[in-house]
Amino acid sequence: MLLLRLLLILVALLLVLFAALYLFAGQRRYVQFAWQTMRFSAVILLLFGVLFVLERYVLSGWRLLF
Questions:
Q1: DSSP state, 66?
Q2: Residue 56 has what pLDDT?
Q3: How many Cβ atoms sit within 10 Å of the Cβ of residue 46?
Q4: What's phi and psi for 27, nearest 5 deg?
Q5: N or C: which terminus of the chain carries fewer CB neighbours within 10 A?
Q6: Which residues contact 30 (CB under 8 A, 6 or more apart)?
Q7: Can you give the pTM of this predicted structure?
């Protein structure tokens, strides 16, 4: 959970930084990089969510069988 919090804090800081850079410089590449950062963080969060569900339900159910 600590890694997820750290990831969310870093993503939030990056998004604020990219928004400020876009407002200051007006270049579209900052918006594109922010969008790529959001997609990457969503994939990582989805992966952690699947692993959490796997650990919580599948492995605990597997332990009941043996």
A1: -
A2: 83
A3: 10
A4: -95, 135
A5: C
A6: 18, 19, 21, 22
A7: 0.73
